[in-house]
What does this fold into?
Amino acid sequence: MTAPARFTLDTLIALIETRALSAVDRSYTRQLLDAGPPRVAKKFGEEAIELVIATLGGKRPEIVAEAADVIYHLLVLLQASGVHLDHVVEELGRRTRQSGLDEKASRPA
It folds into this structure.
């Protein structure tokens, strides 16, 4: 018996792309995307706040659950905005070529 495939962010991205094409009455992802980037951004913000609250509470299972919600909603937000995660990863790679403090200092005021 072969082990199940490992779930990755690429797996989640593919799932979001598939569900974006699903019937609107059968897919929360499709409903979010159809509502447009402002609605997706609002939902992402709500989830981020819930992660902050969970972190302040210090309960690991709640942090894990809320972090999963944040990652999912971030990927939906990127999809709604026409930005692929690869572009974000490239930007992160670019930023790691110098210290975070140096990078922040180089930004326009």
